[in-house]
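hey so u asked for the seq, here:
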Amino acid sequence: SIAIGSKDAVLTDSGTGQFTLTFAKPFARPPVAVGSVIYGATGVTLSIESATASAVAVRIYDLAGADADADFHLIVQGFDAADEY
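ran it, structure tokens below
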């Protein structure tokens, strides 16, 4: 579930270790996304698989490379104008 910003995006669990955050209003260009598994989730890694103006895809996997579920934090910095940086 989304703790902050639940009116701004929808989080979809697409299967074990696969999540997509879709924005209610797309940004003008792809956002910067940074994520991490919550402290205490051992043996798993989070990867930002893609970031578009309308969504961010997240994958969580274990040391063997197999998809795994874990709680995570995701910070997204979006831009309303194409020339902002």
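Residues 64 and 81 are 40 Å apart (CA to CA). The chain is about 0% helix and 55% strand.
lmk if thats what u needed
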